[in-house]
């Protein structure tokens, strides 16, 4: 069975984000093909895609390597998200479907329930699904794709602290959905802008000045493990 290149791309990207492939490390087609149980053809295609996304760079005499983003590049990602997520929420208020609203409300209910229970692992996943669904509700594939790439890169470059008050944090999600449901684009934009700004402050850079260190996002602004190919996202 031929495994599609986009599935191999997802597997390599996930491993880069998880730190399995270290920053600056070489990514040889032969070793990657062996790791993921595929031929070199889908690996080659996946590396081209990941280079276009900024996860991989091609170096003379070394070939494909994991990118080594700078602190400024990392800070730019948070700034881009601060600008684009409110835009997505505003568009969602005008373009969302009943199906989008149903999923968003369901995620808010689950998030509020898990917040009261103090389940931080579930909250992280639910938050990701919430923002992915909100982006999809914008009705703009280009914007959705950009926000998805931003989330992947931010997860790669930053460690995220949980919100100090998870219950209030999920109440903010609920208020955003209410504005989207009413078709109030300006309120959806304003609420999402505030929510994103507060969330950005909880991000700590995983690297800096050539060494691993924690840096608050607001200051920045002014090994191997097995891969189950059957579980890849399509």
Automatic annotation (TrEMBL):
Q: Which UniProt keywords apply?
A: DNA-binding, Transcription, Transcription regulation
Checking SMART domains in the record gives: FCD (SM00895), HTH_GNTR (SM00345)
Instruction: List, alphabetically, the InterPro entries matched.
Output: GntR_C (IPR011711), TF_FadR/GntR_C (IPR008920), Tscrpt_reg_HTH_GntR (IPR000524), WH-like_DNA-bd_sf (IPR036388), WH_DNA-bd_sf (IPR036390)
Provide an example Pfam family for this protein: FCD
CDD domains recorded: WHTH_GntR
Cited Gene3D superfamilies: GntR ligand-binding domain-like, Winged helix-like DNA-binding domain superfamily/Winged helix DNA-binding domain
Protein name in UniProt: GntR family transcriptional regulator
An annotated Gene Ontology molecular function: DNA-binding transcription factor activity
Cite the HTH gntR-type domain residue spans from the record. Answer: 2-69
């Amino acid at each position: 069975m031929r495994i599609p290149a986009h599935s191999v791309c997802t597997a390599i990207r996930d491993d880069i984000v998880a730190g399995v492939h270290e920053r600056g490390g070489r990514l040889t087609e032969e070793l990657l093909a062996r790791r993921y149980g595929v031929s070199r053809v889908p690996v080659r295609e996946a590396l081209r895609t990941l280079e276009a996304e900024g996860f991989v760079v091609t170096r003379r005499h070394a070939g494909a390597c994991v990118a080594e983003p700078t602190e400024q590049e990392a800070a730019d990602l948070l700034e881009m998200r601060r600008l684009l997520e409110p835009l997505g929420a505003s568009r969602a208020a005008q373009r969302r479907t009943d199906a989008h609203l149903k999923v968003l409300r369901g995620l808010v209910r689950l998030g509020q329930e898990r917040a009261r229970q103090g389940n931080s692992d579930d909250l992280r996943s639910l938050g990701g699904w919430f923002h992915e669904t909100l982006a999809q509700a914008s009705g703009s594939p280009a914007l959705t794709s950009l926000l998805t790439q931003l989330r992947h890169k931010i997860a790669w470059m930053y460690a995220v602290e949980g919100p100090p008050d998870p219950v209030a944090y999920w109440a903010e999600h609920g208020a955003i959905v209410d504005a989207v449901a009413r078709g109030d684009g300006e309120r959806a934009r304003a609420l999402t802008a505030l929510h994103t700004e507060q969330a950005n402050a909880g991000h700590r850079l995983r690297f800096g000045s050539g060494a691993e260190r924690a840096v608050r996002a607001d200051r920045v602004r002014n090994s191997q493990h097995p891969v189950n190919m059957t579980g890849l996202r399509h």
